């Protein structure tokens, strides 16, 4: 009998081997800095790799992403790559996994993006390396004002930037009251977490959806506090990133991983 320990009971989760540079602002990441970052892809009939969304490794068999990335699609011809910095390169650290099952949240609403969270079960078992390590699931909420990290291959404000190279940015967590006042015509739910700067300039954008917002504790262990869901525009003032608040879904995640 083989037992696969989830990220909650693994001492390996959330600890990076490669040091985090922690430069504030959107910059290119270094190989191995964010070892839980996954690239969610569709493989075309001609074999082309088409990026769909970001994703986060949380155990040897399970990945977390946003429901708006997965709803309505079948698991065939889908793939998730880990250990990737430049998805246009043939990197020795990269490992590809087929998708066995997709579990969208049963109460996901594609109009207001309530419950924008989805689990993906991998067809293979991930072997952890210096470049592939799961993020920890949260054991507590994150406080407003804390600096956290977002990563992804999404669009940037600089048109000459290479989208094929993973980027990172540090953003402060906001309280939902402040976030709601900036997004007066959008719903900010208690199951959302907002992060970003009032002045804009740094934040998630198209292509970053489903990827991680991680925050570290005093020991340097990183916890997955948010799944990138949406924002109005990219880098504009008063438009922070809105994330699915993972701490609200730990019970749902554990239940689905145990029963599927």
Automatic annotation (TrEMBL):
Keywords: Disulfide bond, Hydrolase, Protease, Serine protease. Residues 23-258 form the Peptidase S1 domain. The keyword Protease applies. Pfam families: Trypsin. SMART domains: Tryp_SPc. InterPro entries: Peptidase_S1_PA (IPR009003), Peptidase_S1_PA_chymotrypsin (IPR043504), Peptidase_S1A (IPR001314), Trypsin_dom (IPR001254), TRYPSIN_HIS (IPR018114), TRYPSIN_SER (IPR033116). GO terms for biological process: proteolysis. GO terms for molecular function: serine-type endopeptidase activity. PANTHER family: ACROSIN-RELATED, HYALIN. This is Peptidase S1 domain-containing protein. The lineage of its organism: Eukaryota, Metazoa, Chordata, Tunicata, Ascidiacea.
């Amino acid at each position: 009998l083989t037992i696969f320990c989830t990220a909650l009971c693994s001492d390996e989760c959330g600890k990076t081997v490669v040091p985090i540079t922690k430069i504030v602002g959107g910059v290119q990441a270094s190989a191995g800095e964010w070892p839980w970052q996954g690239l969610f892809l569709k493989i075309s009939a001609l074999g082309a790799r088409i990026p769909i969304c970001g994703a986060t490794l949380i155990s040897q068999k399970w990945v977390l992403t946003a429901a708006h990335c997965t709803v309505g699609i079948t698991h065939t011809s889908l793939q998730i790559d880990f250990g990737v910095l430049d998805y246009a390169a043939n990197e020795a650290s990269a490992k590809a996994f087929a998708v066995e099952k997709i579990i969208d949240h049963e109460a996901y609403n594609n109009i207001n993006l309530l419950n924008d969270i989805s689990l993906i079960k991998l067809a293979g078992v991930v072997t952890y390396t210096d470049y592939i390590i799961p993020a920890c699931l949260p054991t507590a909420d994150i406080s407003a004002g804390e600096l956290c990290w977002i990563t992804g291959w999404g669009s940037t404000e600089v048109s000459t930037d290479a989208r094929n190279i993973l980027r990172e940015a540090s953003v402060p967590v906001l309280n939902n009251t402040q976030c709601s006042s900036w997004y007066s015509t959008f719903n900010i739910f208690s199951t959302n977490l907002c992060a970003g700067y009032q002045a804009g300039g740094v934040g998630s954008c198209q292509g970053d959806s489903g990827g991680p917002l991680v925050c570290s504790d005093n020991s340097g262990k990183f916890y997955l506090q948010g799944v990138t869901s949406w924002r109005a525009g990219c880098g504009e003032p008063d438009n922070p990133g809105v994330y699915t608040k993972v701490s609200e879904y730990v019970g749902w995640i554990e239940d689905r991983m145990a029963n599927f």
